[in-house]
Amino acid sequence: MTIIAVRSGWASELTSGDRLNGKRGPRLYGRRVGFSIRLAPGVRIRASSRGIRTSVGPRAARVHVGAGRTGFSSGVGPVGFYTSLGGGRRGGRAAPAGNYQRQVAARRRQAVQAQRVQEATMLAQAFLRILGLHRVEFPAASRPPAPEPAPPNHDAIYKHYEQHALAGIGFFERSKRAQAKQRATGWTEAEVQRQWASLREQQAGWQRYLDDRWQQLCNNEPDVVLETLEEAFEDNEAPSAAVGVSDDEASVVVLVPAVDQAVPERMPTTTEAGNLSLRKLPQRDRAAYYKLFVCGQVLVTVRETFAVAPGIGSARVAVLRQDGTDSYGRARVSCLMATKIERASLTGVRWQDVDAADIVNDTSSELLLNQRPRTGELLPLKLETEPALAALIDAVDLAELTLAT
Known about the structure:
By secondary structure, the chain is of the alpha+beta class. The protein has helices at 97-132, 154-165, 174-218, 222-232, 259-262, 283-308, 356-363, 387-394, 398-403, and strands spanning 2-6, 13-15, 27-29, 35-40, 43-48, 51-56, 62-66, 71-76, 79-84, 240-246, 249-256, 266-270, 276-280, 314-325, 331-342, 364-369.
């Protein structure tokens, strides 16, 4: 409770008795009979029908304890402010213990529910992101134009020639100054034209370089394609690398995290009563979401490859997973999937309606998977029977690729 009061002089304060032995007698306050004793500067004890109450501190910041609730008052001039610092209801009686405990329990339940809602929101976003990974679109590359050069600074050029033309001419030699400025204007126009010609020549040379590189990219020149893909893959969530180009086919590897880092353990749902619940995902469901995650990363990489390298007609993708390190501190990597996808097979795919696993299954001309029969968990491929795939993985700089994770 907070009270703001306006003091009006000393009318409310009555004095009983004259000075006794040089000291003032006890005071009577309003209707309640009591007295006030000043023990020391800033310390006063008041007695009334409600009990003993002590006030400590100056009028500008005074604390009141004792009978009733603990309070704080402040007053400067005619305005006073009072607020209660303790709990309990008016009159100094504390609230029933049961009511207080119920309030605490209710607040605790509200905090737990708010935390659960926040966690459910984050989990829902994580699952939606897995389901939508493959729907990312990339604009198709086109012949790059050389940038337009910035025009010459006409004012700066004129200022330079004007200063040169006016050298040695007096301030009041108007005719000579006018002729000098005309010469400066002519020189400026000639210099601007010369600089424009030089800039246009540089632009043409830059355009010839870009056209030559574009032609090499369209013709699948291996070095140009690999360099272009390396630049495109720099900001990918899953570290990716192009390791080879043969005719119109690119070979790419993608490094994905383990299931524990990719798929949450719990999923938000509701009970039969409609209450929010965070249930633990069954192993089969979690394996299915992880497969969607892996296939989504494959499709993202393939779509970006076809977008930035217009001459590439197919892509071979090997999906690697880092499985810790060996006794020598080297990264231990396993291969979870290998697929070949043709550019033409992606034409007409309904990206918004079909999940990533079905798209990979339907568009792959070659697909290697090893799934546990009961749970559908992705298991490492046996590279002993796939020498070409093993050679592809051996060509990867695993130290550099795993450094990105």
